[in-house]
Structure formats: C-alpha cells, structure tokens
Design a protein that fits this description.
The chain is an alpha/beta fold. It has nine helices and nine strands. The structure holds SN-glycerol-3-phosphate and calcium ion. The site of calcium ion has 3 residues, from strand 2.
Amino acid sequence: MRIKNGTALMDPDKFLIIAHRGASVQAPEHTMAAYRLAKELEADYLEVDVQMSKDNVLVSIHDLTVDRTTDGSGVVTDMTLAELKRLDAGSWFNQKYPDMAKEEYTKQKIPTLQEIIDEFGKSVNYYIETKKPEQNEGIEDELFELLGQNGLLDESLPEGKVVIQSFSEESLKRMRTFSRKIPLIKLERDPITGPDARKRFEEVCEYAVGIGTYFERIDEDYIKTAKESGLLVHLYTVNSSEIADKWKGIGAHGIFTDNIPGTRV
Ligand code: G3P
Ligand code: CA
C-alpha cells in the first residue's frame, strides 16, 4: 500500500508528533494521566500499546509483566482485569522521577483501551500497537471488534484517525484482511539498511503504509529509499528538538516521543 499526497493526517508532508505511551516524561506511561496530558500538549497521536488480560480485555501497558510500572508482579496475560485493576500504576513514577511527581499519579490504574476511547472518543487520533501477538492470541480480532463498536472504523472518519502498528508481520497481515483502508505501520527493531533496504520496503508495501523504526540504526539513505518506495517513516524514540529537527530535515514523517514539549520543531 502506498500513501497518497494530501490526505489529512497521513499526508507525507506532515511531521507527526506521536505521544509515546502518552506524555511519558511528565506522567506515568500508559495511564490516563499521561494520555490527558498528551492531548493537552496537542500531540497528533496518542500511542497505546495493547495486550490482553487473562479474561480477554484489551489493556494499555508496554511490558509483558506488570513489575516495572506497577506495585505488583506477574505476567499481564496471566492476570484477570480485576487483578490488573487492583494495581497502582503511578507511584513507581513518583519514586523514580521526584521532580515530576504528583499526588494524583498514585491513583492511576492500568487503563483498558475501552476506557481510553470512552474518555477521548473521536477528539484524538490513536496509534495502537498490538504487543507480542504470539502471546496474545486473537488480539487483532478483539481490537477490530472494539474499534468497530466505538465507530472508529467508520468510512466517514478522516484517514489515519486510527493507525495500527506492530513488530509482527503476521499480526499486520491478519489485520490487513480485516480492512483494506486502515493505515498499518511495520515496526522494525533492526532495520535493514544498505542495498537490501529497497527489497525490504517492497515487501512491507504489500500490507503496510509505513515503517516505524529506531532512529539510531538508520541513515539518510534509509529514509530516501523508504520514501521512494512510497512508505511513511516514523522514528522512535526521539526526545530532543535537535534530533527531531535533524530527522525532519532529512525527510522523516514523524516521531514517537516521550517528551512532547521538548521536541517541538
Ligand atoms: O511503537 C513504537 C515504539 O513504541 C516501539 O517500541 O518498545 O516502545 O513499544 P516500544
Ligand atoms: Ca509501542
């Protein structure tokens, strides 16, 4: 799939600010507080990693375990929603980042994707990642059902109201069978650079409109070749305006950032 010029959010001439896990420098990642702040800071997208609880509810959390970002321990997919909801998802942030700490963060819980959508509706744009689909069987079906129930797959919405990303090619290809239209982004941890990059981009074009990649492992040629192949390139995780500015100048289409105010260019 190749992106066309002049189509709203997915316009290749735009430089998108994607709030990585919410405004995660200023607030505990993947909490409602972080997403509220990202909206206030006028991010173009709220980035939401999703996994499934033991009882098949889509929840917003990055790690496979709750250990780093809550006061509990255990594997997310082994815990029911009720068990996940008992956890404090904000106090760790106050302890780790006392300069940013706020009393209200101690009340933060792991939100469900439905709760995030209930709060923001169509007033924001969502950039959702299916996390570890091999350990979250059926996550694509659950995600599309939820998006459909909330009117987020409606044809009348601007292109790119919801973008879906994954490191898993299989997961993306499955979702492509659900919708020809929804923008899909292939995430790369070890991007293929050099002469083999073009072949890689041609493969990705079969099912995705862009690549999300680690900016420290690419070069100018990578962006140039991706663009010639008709792909968008979004870079993670860019937390300074100098780096954002550099890659904007080179031609990237946007950044995932923890630090929205610090990366405005
Ligand atoms: O989704 C872009 C970036 O978030 C991928 O890395 O590990 O932060 O989800 P991660
Ligand atoms: Ca992510």
